[in-house]
Amino acid sequence: MGDSASQRQQDGLHFEPSQQVRLFKKQLDEFLRQEVEPLEDEYEQFLGEYGERNRVGDDGRLVDEYLDVRETIQRRSHEAGFYTMYMPEEYGGGGLSNLEFTQVIEHLHYRNPDGFHELILDTLSVRPAVIPMAHDDYQRERYFDPIMAADKHLAFGLTEPDHGSDVTWMDTTAEKDGDEWVINGAKCFTTNAPYADFITVYARTSGEDGDARGISSFIVDADNPGWEVGKVQPPMGTQVGEQSFNHFTNCRVPDSHMVGEEGEALIDAMSWVNAARIRLPAEAVGRCQWMVEQCIEYAKDRKTFGKPIGERQFVQGHLADMRADIEMVRWLYRYAAWEIDRDNEPRWLLSAAKLRGAELWWDVADRAVQIHGGAGYMRSLPFESELRTARAARIYDGTDEVQRRTIARDLLNL
User: Fold this and answer.
1) How far apart are the first and last CA of the chain?
2) Is residue 296 within 8 Å of 288, Cβ to Cβ?
3) 132 with 122: CB under 8 angstroms?
4) Which of 108, 136, 230, 290 has an alpha carbon 20 to 30 Å from 249's alpha carbon atom?
5) Are 127 and 272 in contact (CB under 8 A)?
6) With pLDDT > 90 as the criterion, what percentage of the chain qualifies?
7) What pLDDT, in 10s, does the model give residues 83-132?
8) Prediction pTM value
């Protein structure tokens, strides 16, 4: 038995929710019941089969009324202690471990996806991306603390039009000019950029294409004339009005707006991506568990030729595969989160959890549509929108192919 296996045995590894997680889940349910569900009743035009359409205006951006709802929920979430529950306590967060946080995420998404519950967390879950700000008095007071209090919101400018998943190839540059930096370049698929108070933009300050080092991060305020939010990019799925192109043209920022150490920002960025990767399979498990239970009820109630369709072997096969796959991904993401909490660096394991989580979400949504037949294909049920939304999970935070490459390179010691 290897050392890690022995340690797991000594720890009594079982991944059951801790007392803190059970308390968080109970409080979360109460918060949703008291604070979020009344808003869902009041603003039902943003939910249901026409909700996606009503959330955006003719320019493709989220309408002001929906933005006000989002702001209200996030402020209430901050007051209740949920908004930054994943942040370390020394930075004013809830101090949940990765394992605890992912278990809460699973629980949060174990419900009808057509609701406002996703709005209780910050847009990006930016723990590693903003922590360097907390070590700088100026940045902490002006940016970090307002983020933590849900008073300010940011965008994360990393992905570029011509390079996609390989962020070590970066066309955006920043050149020093006296006590300022001049940024030129473009970013795409930037979540929340049209509504952000500022953006953390990544630019090459030294080194060559393909080098992980030499990339720095800068804070650019929304009123900076050198930053232009371009066309909003309508996506497949329910994240309408949130992603956009961004153009930086002779964008000047003071030296005090560099986040962290010069040339080291990509390390923080990849930590952020890893945090997002472990969150995704937890979310997928919660969503898929809810969809399976809807399928079970339907299979018991829906009759064809005088018998419930649950007695049909094909339907039973779908249900069996979904249950088995959900349990597999649940244990996989919890094991990966447990490893991170022990300061290990299981990059291949994070990739495996993200890969299988994204595939699970897509597969279960597809099977849910199939089980419900023609009704599942209609927008009156949530499964078709889940199918469209799930497809994006196989692309963002590293495509399926990137995850497979990471796993294979670990096997081959490359």
Assistant:
1) 26
2) no
3) no
4) 136
5) yes
6) 66
7) 988 888 888 888 888 899 999 999 999 999 999 999 998 655 555 567 88
8) 0.91
